[in-house]
């Protein structure tokens, strides 16, 4: 891959990545808006919607430094994936959950590890926790469908994310104008106005054509495709989480990650201002910032993930010394299950281990006696138990990801 200056000297490249342009559209008020006189006056006349450039055949010209950074990050991603792959279970599930939780937190959807684990067994009252679990499903869809990245797979990711909370939005591209910031009555004062909905299908097809190229390094390609997806903003809701699921799908499709989902979103969390600024830079025709943001996020994600893996391995080793049971006892299988599902009830344990609920309760009781599990409530019905050490490790991961944010 050549740098931008080299390509320009050879006369093969226009000066810079294509930036977006804008086009006017008339805005028709409903007459039912409730706002100040100033806001109502502002919401009159034409507004400007973005027209993202087509990128399917665009030349990717980056500085030598950015290319080297992306290459270093790619090597680290592949190395960590291989490390975790030697002991994939339970780390594949754990890392996928942490990526989903971090991606949700980018959208200010925060939840504790305990509430997310409760939501996964249908016992949480937290709306945010249920949304994180929906994001887990979207990430799973992204990985499962990564062999065929097309419009159907993107719609499937979005469906997995929002089918339970906003079913009216799934299964199709948006059919309305959306905007980011600036109030809810019109796009006139918005921070960014994505393209008119009539342009979305063509722009998605173009982005997917770029994503299917084989002449662009995987991490660079994934970062740019993600930024283009966020610029298109093809849905009324869920664009950020779906776009980061797409990024993970592309890393998997490009075989940088094969065994686990490296929680790149946790790295982005460390400096959200840089991430959002990079998306703005991309729209101005400067893609290097988003490549740099994703590369730096990858380094941070790997560092946080290694610490998480170390914490969980230490906990598993400690449990082995605390629990005395026959080698064929279901207690040992329950220990393994707790590493990826740290809150359980009798029903979920019975289903996972394929044993009776009586046997499940016996296994739970033995781990309570060994101080591996504690009961989360004193109620006689709908009792749940938690593995505090695993929950603490997951919450510590989140704290590390957020560290350094202002």
From TrEMBL:
<dbReference type="InterPro" id="IPR003812">
    <property type="entry name" value="Fido"/>
</dbReference>
<dbReference type="Pfam" id="PF02661">
    <property type="entry name" value="Fic"/>
</dbReference>
<dbReference type="GO" id="GO:0005524">
    <property type="term" value="F:ATP binding"/>
</dbReference>
<keyword id="KW-0067">ATP-binding</keyword>
<dbReference type="Pfam" id="PF13784">
    <property type="entry name" value="Fic_N"/>
</dbReference>
<feature type="domain" description="Fido">
    <location>
        <begin position="149"/>
        <end position="296"/>
    </location>
</feature>
<protein>
    <submittedName>
        <fullName>Fic family protein</fullName>
    </submittedName>
</protein>
<dbReference type="InterPro" id="IPR025758">
    <property type="entry name" value="Fic/DOC_N"/>
</dbReference>
<dbReference type="InterPro" id="IPR040198">
    <property type="entry name" value="Fido_containing"/>
</dbReference>
<feature type="binding site">
    <location>
        <begin position="237"/>
        <end position="244"/>
    </location>
    <ligand>
        <name>ATP</name>
    </ligand>
</feature>
<keyword id="KW-0547">Nucleotide-binding</keyword>
<dbReference type="InterPro" id="IPR036597">
    <property type="entry name" value="Fido-like_dom_sf"/>
</dbReference>
<feature type="active site">
    <location>
        <position position="233"/>
    </location>
</feature>
